[in-house]
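name: query_chain
kind: protein
chains: 1
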Amino acid sequence: MELNIVELSRLQFAMTALYHFLFVPLTLGLSVIVAIMETVFVMTGRPIWRQMTKFWGTLFGINFVLGVATGLTMEFQFG
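structure:
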C-alpha cells in the first residue's frame, strides 16, 4: 500500500489533532484543580497544599505549553 502526499498529510493532521484534543481538556481540568488547591492553601495555611499546588502547577505549565504547540501546528497545517 502506497501512501501519496495527501494521505500522509491527513495522517499527520490526525495525529496532531489527537494530541491537541487530549491536551486542551486536561489543561482546563488542571487549571480548576490547581486553583482549588491554592485557595485551600490560602484558607488553611497548611504547607502540604502549597507543595501539591507547586507539583500540579508544574504539570499544568508543561501541559499548557504542549497544548499551545499542537494548536499552532494545527493552525499552520490548515493553510
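note: The chain is about 90% helix and 0% strand.
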